[in-house]
Structure to design on (559 residues):
């Protein structure tokens, strides 16, 4: 633990908690929470918030609640609840007895509302939604008081009761806090606490036909759960005075809210509304499409929970919004997969090679499973007189710095032999096959006469190869900040974000199960997709072996 703590990036929230523990502010308790609204799948920004809240609780021997902020029956579904639970567990956090639902507090919230009415601090308003907006005023202009603002306590209690009983249609009345229509903070201009909505809720069914507004509910949820540090994103800074007002007026338990900057990741989007649009309009193949910034998409793509946690820790916690480079996330993925993923050979764009002087019927060669992990051992890979190599590893007319295979040139086949290209076979101008010779004395090693080759290629024996579909991904959008770019964000979708190839795998890859992560030598890290069928694997490329984003940046900046 202590070594672990030394590796952590300092962050101002941790400092606040440490000070609170030192001063005994919360009787030594640390209670955080992650409060998603179940109206979509979680993305990497939520991942960041999950890691922050759960890790802080873990670090200080506290607890973190997963709380579903399910106060809006219209947009919420159980499918989302289940996906969120799965994602949090996948990230590696324990959910033992810490799953809560705001909807379980509906009765308590209504009681709190009655308390405010009794104190003369809330009233039932008959203005329409449009009128309320109009009366609210602007940033430079004070708002106007509603003509219903000074109803008596008795009348308000009666009307609120009848709202609850379902006597009024949707939109005809609301309950509002009586604060200050001239406040410089618009959130304080008599915010709506309850609206009438005759809609079924995914958990409470038709029990309620009034539903609490987010700003009314949120602080109460934190208070009911006795949260100590209510960590949220910066956009709630202006709402904090309202949460404080509610809790002070109710004279109830009052957590400390701390704001931090949202995670924004370049070349993608973090808005649930827009992610939903991508799914609904089928710009991607579902929430877990490996191009999506969702945790389920990243999981399907082959990202590991460990690497996402490392990423969340490394980016730290900021007070100001910024854009994080995708290269940092991919660096974390690569670093972890490099340590854990076994190596295999696979050819993504095959070119046939015939070894014209190979006479045997085939043989097995010893290949190392993971040079980073000696205990991973080795495996036997079949070799024969007909192979596939990568089409891009051959050039008939090689440019100056191309050291791979070319007519008359000798290269090494990984773990196998030196080969020399002696003939190029074409059909209609397209190269269909290479004829090569091999040097039997170079088996698994160097040439006895000490001659050198300048490159090593991966390969697969044609007779033993398993055909596979391989999905290669590129960034989902063409611009770093699609949400703020000109025009509609959809205009900036990258049409080449998914490329599919038909490749060949070495036979050992047959043993992979869905979700297994491997390295294809020289080609990147890959993960077996659930679309795979018996004898027909489908692999997603998780990430390339080297940083390709730097190149993209260079191209974009014109050098
Ligand atoms: P919306 O409220 O518009 O549906 P949201 O992304 O804020 O979208 P929530 O379900 O309210 O979704 O988010 C749950 C928690 O995750 C909140 O506490 C929020 O602050 C945090 N969160 C959301 N997006 C990010 C992000 N990009 N970076 C860090 N934390 C985030
Ligand atoms: Mg939100």
């Amino acid at each position: 633990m202590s070594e672990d703590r030394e590796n952590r990036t300092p962050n101002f929230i941790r400092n606040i908690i440490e000070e609170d523990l030192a001063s005994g502010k919360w009787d030594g308790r640390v209670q955080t929470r992650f409060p998603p609204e179940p109206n979509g799948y979680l993305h990497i920004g939520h991942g960041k918030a999950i890691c922050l809240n759960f890790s802080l609780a873990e670090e200080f021997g506290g607890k973190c609640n997963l709380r579903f902020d399910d106060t809006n029956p219209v947009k919420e579904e159980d499918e989302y609840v289940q996906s969120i639970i799965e994602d949090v567990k996948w990230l590696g956090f324990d959910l033992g007895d810490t799953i809560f639902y705001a909807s379980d507090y509906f009765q308590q919230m209504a009681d709190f509302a009655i308390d405010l009415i009794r104190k003369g601090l809330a009233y039932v308003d008959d203005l329409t939604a449009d009128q309320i907006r109009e009366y609210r005023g602007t940033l430079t202009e004070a708002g106007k008081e509603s003509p219903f603002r000074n109803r008596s306590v008795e009348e308000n209690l009666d009307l609120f009761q009848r709202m609850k009983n379902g006597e009024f249609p949707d939109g005809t009345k609301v309950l509002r806090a009586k604060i200050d229509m001239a406040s410089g903070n618009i959130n304080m201009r008599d915010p709506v606490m309850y609206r009438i909505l005759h809609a079924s809720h995914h958990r409470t069914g038709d029990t309620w036909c009034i539903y609490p507004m987010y700003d009314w509910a949120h602080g109460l949820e934190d208070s009911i759960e006795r949260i100590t540090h209510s960590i949220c994103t910066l956009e709630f800074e202006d709402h904090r005075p309202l949460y404080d007002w509610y809790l002070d007026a109710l004279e109830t338990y009052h957590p400390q809210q701390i704001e931090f900057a949202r995670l924004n990741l370049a070349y993608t989007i973090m808005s649930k509304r827009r992610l939903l649009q991508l799914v609904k309009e089928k710009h991607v193949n579902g929430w877990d499409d490996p191009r999506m910034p969702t945790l389920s998409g990243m999981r399907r793509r082959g990202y590991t929970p460990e690497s996402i946690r490392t990423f969340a820790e490394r980016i730290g916690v900021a007070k100001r919004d910024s854009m994080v480079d995708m290269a940092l996330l991919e660096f974390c993925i690569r670093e972890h997969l490099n340590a854990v993923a076994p190596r295999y050979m696979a050819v993504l764009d095959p070119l046939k090679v015939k070894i014209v002087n190979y006479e045997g019927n085939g043989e097995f060669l010893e290949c190392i499973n993971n040079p980073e992990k000696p205990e991973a051992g080795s495996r036997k890979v079949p070799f024969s007189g007909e192979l596939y190599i990568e089409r891009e590893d051959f050039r008939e007319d090689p440019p100056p710095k191309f050291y791979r295979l070319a007519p008359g040139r000798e290269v090494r086949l990984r773990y196998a032999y030196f080969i020399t290209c002696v003939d190029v076979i074409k059909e209609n101008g397209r190269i269909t096959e290479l004829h090569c010779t091999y040097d039997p004395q170079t088996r698994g090693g160097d040439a006895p006469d000490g001659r050198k080759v300048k490159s090593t290629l991966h390969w697969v024996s044609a007779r033993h190869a398993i055909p596979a579909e391989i999905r290669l991904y590129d960034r989902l959008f063409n611009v770093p900040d699609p949400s703020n770019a000109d025009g509609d964000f959809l205009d900036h979708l990258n049409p080449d974000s998914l490329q599919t190839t038909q490749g060949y795998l070495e036979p050992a890859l047959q043993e992979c199960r869905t979700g297994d992560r491997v390295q294809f030598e020289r080609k990147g890290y890959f993960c077996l997709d659930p679309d795979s069928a018996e004898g027909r694997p489908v692999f997603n490329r998780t990430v390339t072996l080297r940083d390709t984003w730097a190149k993209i940046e260079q191209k974009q900046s014109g050098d």
Observations:
- The mean pLDDT is 95.
- The chain has 14 helices and 27 strands.
- The longest strand covers residues 418-427.
- Residues 44-59 form the longest helix (16 residues).
